[in-house]
Amino acid sequence: MTGSSISLPSSLTKSRLEEIAQTFGTPFLIYDENGIRETLKRINRAFSWNPGFKEYFAVKACPNPSILEICRDEKAGADCSSAPELTLASLVGMQAEEIMFTSNNTPIEEFRQARDLGAIINFDDITHIPFFISHVGPLPEFCCVRYNPGEERTGNSIIGNPEEAKYGMTKAQIFQALRIMKQEGVRRFGLHTMIASNELNPQYHINTAIMLFNLAVQIQDQLGIRLEFVNTGGGWGVNYKPEQKPLNPREVSSGIREAYEGIIVPNRLNTLSIVMENGRFITGPNGWLVMRARHEKHTYREYIGVDATMADFMRPGVYGAYHHLIVPGKEEESPDHVYDIIGSLCENCDKFGVQRHLPKIEIGDLVVLCGAGAHGKAMGFNYNGKLRGQELLLKSDGKVEMIRRPETQDDYFATLRFPGSKY
Question: Could you tell me the pTM of the whole model?
Fold first, then answer.
C-alpha cells in the first residue's frame, strides 16, 4: 500500500535484502537490534518514575539467546513458562529475581528448576501451593500469585473473557493463597494478572493497573501483607495494520502513574514496584519474514507461491491475523494486482495474505511480511515434513549475523528410530 505507515528500516533496502538473501538464502526471519533496544529504552524511560519498575521480556515471543542478550543489556528480565525457557534465561546470564516463572498445569521438574534458579515463582492455582510443598520442598521466601478477575473484567477478542480462561485464581483464592504462603514462611509477595493480548487501547492497560492497585490495598488491609510488586502482565498491542495507531508507552505510563498516586500513595504503599512482561510489543514490529516468489498460479484467483510456509510463520494461517506485505523496490508502484500469497503446505490456510492489493509481483521478487518479530519461529512446526528457516540479526553496526541456522533433514529425523539406518 503506497504511503503506508508500516515500512522496512531504511537500512533494509531492496539491494541490501538481495545481498543478505544471496549470502544466507531465503526464507529468513530478520530482527533489528536497534529497534529492539530502542523499544526497551522507551518503556524504561516511560516508567522511570517508579524506582522498582522492571520489564520481564516474555521469552515465548522470541526464544533466542541473542534476543535475550539484548534484553538483558537493556535491564530487562525474562518471563518464562517452561524448562527450556528457564534454561535460555539462565544461559544468557539472567539470575534469580531477574527471572519470573509464570506457568500453568506445571510439572514438578519445572517447579524444581525454577526454585533452584532462584526465580520468582508465580503460582497459577491455589492447589499448586501444597503440590509444591509436597513434591519440591518449602516455598521460596519470595512468591507471586496470579489473579483471574472473572466477571470484574472483560477480556479482549484474542485472550477471551477471564471467566473462560484457565489461568489464575479467584479473588477469594488469592486471599486464601496469601494466608497459606505467609504461614509457610513466605516473606515477600507479588501479585500478577494477564487478561489481554495484543491490546492497543492504552486505557485497558491502565484499568488493569487500577484493578491491581485496589486489590493491593485490600490485601494490606485484610492480611497485613505489603506486596512488593504488582505485575500488570503483557498484552501491549502492535499496530499490524497501517491505519492502526501505535501504542505509546508514555500514554500508558501517565495513566498508571495517576492511578498510583491516587490509590497507592495515600494508602502508604508507595514502595510498590510495577513490573510487566511484554514480548510482542518489543520484538514484534522489529522483525520481518523475507520470502522469495517462486511460482504464480492463475485459476479462480491470482496466487503467488513463496518459499516460506506456515511452518515459518503461522499467525495468518491459524488466526487469520493480518500482517502487512511489502514488495521491496516496488513500494511506490500502484497496488493494482490482487493476490493470495501462499506457501506449499497441504493446507488451504497456508496463506500469508488473502486478496491483497499489491504491485505486480514477478517470479524471483522478494516479498516481506512485516511485524514478524514475535510468535514466529516460536510457534513453528514441521507438518508435511517442512523444515523451518533461519533467524538473522541486523546488528547495530549494520552487519547481519545468523542467530539460528535453518533446519535440515537430519534435524527432522533426529528423534526417530530407523532400524538398520543412520537414523
Answer: 0.94
